[in-house]
Design brief:
The protein has no helices and eleven strands. The chain has strands spanning about 15-20, 20-25, 30, 60, 65, 75, 80, 85, 95, 100-105, 110. The strands form four sheets. Strands 1-2-3 form a three-stranded antiparallel β-sheet, with no helix packed on it. A three-stranded antiparallel β-sheet has the order 7-4-11, with no helix packed on it.
């Protein structure tokens, strides 16, 4: 019997070690050694251009014309984006924009509706 910790997400006892990570085969959650359920509350706080805190599922509006990389298209000021998803990357917001498709945006160029 091994002394591996239970999964902090689904509490499964069937975890295994993969390099420097623990993996749960039931819910596919991965976490680092020494990380426990209490450490997951340290999420990055994402704020819009006005300082309002953004959450998953919020609706935002673009405050500046944005050039689309690799295209001659522009996302116009005032474009509304519904149901955003926050990610932990340089571009904080993952979303779908009507007429453009899947897109990643920086939070500094949007305001919460």
């Amino acid at each position: 019997m091994s002394n591996l910790p239970n999964c902090p997400q689904c509490k499964s006892e069937y975890t295994y070690e993969d390099g420097s990570l623990f993996v749960c085969p039931e819910c596919a959650h991965e976490w680092a050694l020494g990380e426990d359920a209490g450490d997951r509350d340290d999420k990055k706080i994402v704020k819009d251009a006005n300082g309002n805190i953004l959450n998953d599922g919020d609706s935002v509006s673009v405050i500046k014309d944005l050039k689309v990389k690799g295209s001659s298209s522009v996302i116009k000021i005032g474009t509304k984006v519904k149901n955003i998803r926050l990610i932990d990357e340089d571009h904080d917001i993952d979303c779908k924009i009507d007429g453009f498709g899947a897109m990643k945006l920086k939070s500094e160029f949007v305001k919460k509706i």
